[in-house]
Each structure stands twice: as C-alpha cells, then as structure tokens.
User: Fold Ser/Thr protein phosphatase family protein from Listeria welshimeri serovar 6b.
Amino acid sequence: MKKRLTLWHTNDIHSHLEKWPRIFNFLKEKRTAANKENKSALFFDIGDFLDRVHPLTEGTNGLANTDLLNQLPYDAVTFGNNEGTTLAHEDLENLYEHATFPVVCCNFYADKERIKQPDWVKSIVYKEIDQVKIAIIGATAPFREYYEEMGWGIEEPISSIQKQVAGLEEGTDLVILLSHLGLPSDERIALEIPEIDVILGGHTHHLLETGKVEGNALLAAAGRWGEYIGKVDIELDEKNQILSKTAMTFKTEDLPAAPNEAREIQGFFDKGRAELSEKVVAIPGKLAHNWFDDSEIAQILNAAVCEWTGAETFVMNAGIFMTDFEAGIVTDFDIHQMLPHPLNAIALTMSGEELEILIDGIYRKKAELQDIPLRGFGFRGEYFGTVLMDRADFDLEKQVALFDNKPIDKTREYRIATHDTFVFAPFFPIVKQIKRKEVYTPELLRDILKWKLKKMYGQEEDK
Ligand SMILES: [Zn+2]
Assistant:
C-alpha cells in the first residue's frame, strides 16, 4: 500500500496578524483531521514569522508570536532575519523559551567563533511517521555583520547543510530543508546537495504556486505576509521509496472567515498598544512628518543618529516617518507608529570620491524615487519619499556635489550614517560597495529617536 505524507508550510508572515485567524483556523482543521483520520501531516514555519512592525510583536519582544505558533502547534520552525537580527540578543535568547516545537537551524551559533550552538537551536531533527524516517534540517540567511555585532555566529549555509547531510542517521528515508535563504540559494542547494528531497523556502517572498523541480528536489514556497499557505504531498511505496512529490498553495483570502476574526485581529493590535503605553516624554508642540520635504522631526532624527554614531550626517528617506507627534505626551506606541520599521543606523566610512558619487546619485535620482511605493529592505512604509541628507548639496550649474556648500575634500575620509534600506535596496550601488560599515544594533532608529527625545524633553519633567 502507498504511504502518504503531507507537509503544510508558511513563511514570511511578517506579523501580518490580520491574516492569522484564517490561516490558523485552516491549519488547525487540517491538523485535527489528520489526527482523526490517522493521516501523516507535518506543519512548518520557515521564518520571518514575526516582524516588529506590529505593536504586539514590539510590545512582547516577539513572545506573542511564539504563542501563536504553539497554538497549532507547529512541528518545527526555522527562523529568519527578522527573528535573528532585529531582536536584541537577550530577546532572541528568550524568544523560544516556551516553544512547544523545535527550532531548527544548522548554520547559527552562540558565539562568533562558531564553536557551539545555543541550546534552543537544533541543526537537525528526526521524525518517524508511518515508519518513514524524516530528517528536517533548517538554515537561515547569513547576515554576518548583524549577527556578529550582537555576539552570535553565522556560517555560510551551503557548507553547514552539506555537513548535516553527510552525517544523516542510517535509515533516513526523506530529507526536508526548511530554508530561510531565498530562492536563488534554494536552487543552488537543490543542484549541489542531491540528498535533499524537499526544500520549503522563504526570505525572498517567492510564491511557487505548484512548486518547482530543481535537480532531485521539489521546491515549495508560499509568498509573503500570510497571503498564501503551502502544501506538499509525498507518496512513498512500502519500502519508503518516493513515488511522487507535488506542491500546491492556498490563497488565504479565499479561505472561509474564522469565527470572530475581526475582533481577534483588533485584539492583537489593542494588546500591543497596551504593552507600549508607557509615557516617554511630553513635547511642547506638534512634530509633523513630511514625505516630500525636510521636517523638524527629520532634523531631530538626523541629530540623534549623528550623535549616536559619530557621523557627520544621516542619509535617510523621508518616507520612514509614518505619523505625527501631537503636542503633549509621547508614548512608546507613538514612537513605534511613527517609525515602525526594523531599521538600524549604519555608519559608513568613505573616501571623498565615494561621497561625491553618493551625493551625485542622490540628486540625480531623488525626484524619481520619491513616489516609489517601496516594500521590503527593512522599510515598512508606503512611499520611499524624498532623500534627506543634511549638509549635502548639489551645484546644478557646475554639476558638482557639495558638502557644507564646498566641493568635497578628496584628501579626507567622511563618516556618513544611513540605514538598512540604503544598503540593501539597489538605488545607490556605491553604498553597497563601501567596505567599512558599522551596523548599530540592537537599537533601531526609533530607539535612537526615543533616546534623543528624552535628552531634549525629558529634563523638563524633573523641574
Ligand atoms: Zn527574511
């Protein structure tokens, strides 16, 4: 008789909890049905399940997200860069403390030297269902500068996965990779490591509606933001030889509504707001945002980041400011709503020539960039907005970049701060080329703004 195994998978939900009740309802039904009918089914999440853009995630340091995963429960998860690089060391250390599932990731270490793994991570786990022995390996994207800055270690995933495959236990019938590495890496892994049967992917937010066969492996992935749920069906013969592998996806929007879902979704938000209700400062006047021009709040953030990083100026897009601060009390929630992005300050040390190229690029491109409805690269806003760079200018007549109204001094180095979007988005290639980068973690831009607001307005409280 043929054996059948179903894998259900989610990836890159990014705390889109407005989709969660429906996803949960659907998967819970599948889980219950599988138990009742004695069918083999496994449930996996492939990372970036949490995103600090949601107040509930922010207010609980991600613990509320782990609770949601527990409720199904999932059988195993790997984590993405949102879990791994946007949470402080201690918060990641605690994230899975009460998890009822194993966290699988073979290329992540508790130390820069990569000697030992944290005790909450497993490189590989085995499951035996219906006498089929299944190896589950996980891997996450190697954001080395970020992980090492926070005291973690990260290894190039392909060699880590190869080691796991070389050490597979005897009698393993099926090898599944939970990959938060992105589609190009998954395709390469499929060709280089033929022992892997199925790669459940994520990170690049790719949707493979009916999967993709590459070499020996079936690749499957469910897009982004909880818009889809993935399913892989595997048939094996009595000797556990794979007969077929197929993939399909379900659109969350088309699934039946979950009971009370609107109330539940509102509840996630309200609970997050309550967690963030602490007062930070009281400000004397309104600070309004402007996506297409300089603003007082942008100047405050510029000063804050320069002070924090020792940089001469801070290059940012005005689209990062999402709301205004009204005069009066500003809470953690208000700061989160204004700057919801998991963005870090990054200091770049560059030559005068490189600064010239950067300023030149900004002044040539900013008009076309400002209306781009940007998604990703750490940015959680709507439009990129204009580029703000205090002290920099461009002489249109002479076509020359200026700093403090003077031509760039080619004989000295400049320390210029920016944030992740400028490093990862392809708009200014020069930024990617600059070798000397210091990522400031774990504080996000909003933490640096909060620190500055307290310095500016906190004192008056005590008077
Ligand atoms: Zn990711």
The CA atoms of residues 98 and 172 lie 29 Å apart. The chain has two domains: 3-270, 278-462. The chain has 15 helices and 23 strands. Residues 48, 80-81, 141, 180, 203 surround zinc ion (CB under 6 Å).
